[in-house]
């Protein structure tokens, strides 16, 4: 049963991250999830100092708030002329450093397990359960990530056309009256919620990997957004299931094996994609050249 909980949690994380990851890849903001996963440290510490509790719910709330602030600061710097990658790097390193300073100043004598909070291990998911009336209703991660997936699915489903147009042509979206900035922050809010809901239980490596790799793989396989969303989720879920069994056989890191499998799938798509595959393009070029009849001298 524990194996089933681990696989189910990984599959939910993959689906939730892949869904919003498609829009990040299209907007060339793939590393925003990594920025959020590092910058939430001050939110965790502040939540602990205010509540006096190491309960996960307080730390998750603090992390979510700081995650949204991180997104706002990144967007603010970009609008002020700072390059996208520089904005992300500056904000997440600065926020993470503030968190480190807060830890060193206020939590020296307290067992605040930040490694667990920031880089949780998916193998421990089955033991962190929720009980209602003394009855277990499953691991906390299942409910947290399931809620994030449901929220993202509903919001993207309701505003699919707006998200699509804002991702491909924000100028046209603004011209037809769509509030581009509002949908940008709405998407970043979904990314923040998904990231925060996932990384405590499954680890930052798995979350960041699932935000980027399945979406990038799907991007190589299709030129239609709706198909890209489906393929991205499928790649994430398949890599989660296959990666777990690879980890079992090798007795290795579960999250590492899942992202490694996703990476292998990306390489295969990069080489063999019908539209963008490197090998397929070379074959087409070779056939095209072989079909050209040289002019007689």
UniProtKB/TrEMBL annotation:
<feature type="transmembrane region" description="Helical">
    <location>
        <begin position="56"/>
        <end position="74"/>
    </location>
</feature>
<dbReference type="InterPro" id="IPR037294">
    <property type="entry name" value="ABC_BtuC-like"/>
</dbReference>
<dbReference type="InterPro" id="IPR001626">
    <property type="entry name" value="ABC_TroCD"/>
</dbReference>
<keyword id="KW-0813">Transport</keyword>
<feature type="transmembrane region" description="Helical">
    <location>
        <begin position="6"/>
        <end position="26"/>
    </location>
</feature>
<feature type="transmembrane region" description="Helical">
    <location>
        <begin position="31"/>
        <end position="50"/>
    </location>
</feature>
<feature type="transmembrane region" description="Helical">
    <location>
        <begin position="228"/>
        <end position="247"/>
    </location>
</feature>
<comment type="similarity">
    <text>Belongs to the ABC-3 integral membrane protein family.</text>
</comment>
<dbReference type="Pfam" id="PF00950">
    <property type="entry name" value="ABC-3"/>
</dbReference>
<keyword id="KW-1133">Transmembrane helix</keyword>
<keyword id="KW-1003">Cell membrane</keyword>
<feature type="transmembrane region" description="Helical">
    <location>
        <begin position="253"/>
        <end position="279"/>
    </location>
</feature>
<feature type="transmembrane region" description="Helical">
    <location>
        <begin position="86"/>
        <end position="106"/>
    </location>
</feature>
<keyword id="KW-0812">Transmembrane</keyword>
<keyword id="KW-0472">Membrane</keyword>
<feature type="transmembrane region" description="Helical">
    <location>
        <begin position="172"/>
        <end position="196"/>
    </location>
</feature>
<feature type="transmembrane region" description="Helical">
    <location>
        <begin position="141"/>
        <end position="160"/>
    </location>
</feature>
<feature type="transmembrane region" description="Helical">
    <location>
        <begin position="202"/>
        <end position="221"/>
    </location>
</feature>
<protein>
    <submittedName>
        <fullName>Metal ABC transporter permease</fullName>
    </submittedName>
</protein>
